[in-house]
């Protein structure tokens, strides 16, 4: 694993040159669950999964795109490409969901237990059950669009960067 990629993994998803400047040409590395594994999307090789402690390549997935998000339990990967968000099983590469999205960047996030994906669609958020592959709930927001999504650590609430918040039991 290149030295710059290990530094990226330690820092989260920030891309840095060796001298500390932001690097827009190198892939961001995302920590995968609680393991010492990281994932990076590269222009040439697609999505790669690395063991960061040994610097060994574990898997290479035939996936390209942007906006890589990994579930906290390391089971799922979500990636935006070609007007769609794909949710992929990290061990089998099987595409579980292939959801159309609007033009531009739409936020999406996994629940803390890895059982749901929240996906914004304009002023609403869809909640997808990953075991069943079905939409279970649509949450109405306030305003024209939802920016950023995050679940609370206990998974009972979903909050948006725009200030909206939802109790997931009640919607």
Query: How many angstroms separate the termini?
Result: 43 Å
Task: State Rg.
Answer: 16 Å
Pick out the low-confidence regions: 1-26
- Please estimate the helix content: under 10%
Strand content: 35-45%
Report the order of strands and helices. Answer: HEEEEEEEEEEEEEEE
Q: How confident is the prediction overall: mean pLDDT? A: 75
The best one-word shape is globular
The helix-and-strand class reads mainly beta
Strands of the largest sheet, in order across it?
1-2-3-4
Oligomer: single chain
Give the helix tally. Answer: 1
The overall strand count is: 15
| Largest sheet: number of strands, sense, barrel closure | 4 strands, antiparallel
Summarize the structure.
The protein is mostly beta strands. Helix content is 5%, strand content 44%. The relative contact order is 0.10.
Structure explained in plain terms:
The strands form four sheets. The protein has a four-stranded antiparallel β-sheet, covered by helices on one side. It has a four-stranded antiparallel β-sheet with strand order 5-6-7-8, with no helix packed on it. A hairpin with a 5-residue loop joins strand 13 and strand 14. It is 5% helix and 44% strand. Residues 1-26 have low confidence and may be disordered. The protein is built from one helix and 15 strands; from the N terminus they run αβββββββββββββββ. It has one helix at 3-11; strands at 29-31, 37-42, 46-51, 56-61, 66-70, 76-81, 84-89, 95-100, 108-110, 116-121, 124-129, 134-140, 149-151, 157-160, 165-167. With 171 residues, the protein is mainly β. The N and C termini lie far apart (43 Å).
């Amino acid at each position: 694993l290149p030295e710059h990629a290990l530094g990226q993994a330690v820092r989260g998803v920030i891309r840095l040159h060796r001298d500390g400047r932001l690097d827009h040409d190198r892939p961001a590395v995302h920590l995968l669950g609680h393991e010492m594994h990281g994932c990076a999307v590269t222009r040439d090789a697609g999505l790669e999964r690395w063991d960061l402690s040994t610097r060994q390549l574990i898997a290479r997935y035939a996936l390209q795109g942007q906006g890589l998000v990994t579930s906290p339990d390391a089971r799922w990967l979500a990636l935006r490409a070609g007007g769609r968000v794909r949710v992929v099983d990290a061990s089998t590469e099987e595409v579980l969901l292939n959801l159309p999205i609007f033009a531009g960047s739409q936020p999406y996030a996994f629940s803390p237990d890895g059982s749901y994906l929240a996906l914004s669609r304009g002023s609403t958020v869809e909640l997808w059950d990953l075991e069943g592959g079905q939409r279970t709930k649509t949450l109405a927001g306030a305003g024209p669009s939802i920016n950023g999504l995050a679940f609370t650590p206990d998974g009972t609430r979903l909050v948006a960067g725009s200030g909206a918040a939802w109790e997931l039991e009640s919607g």
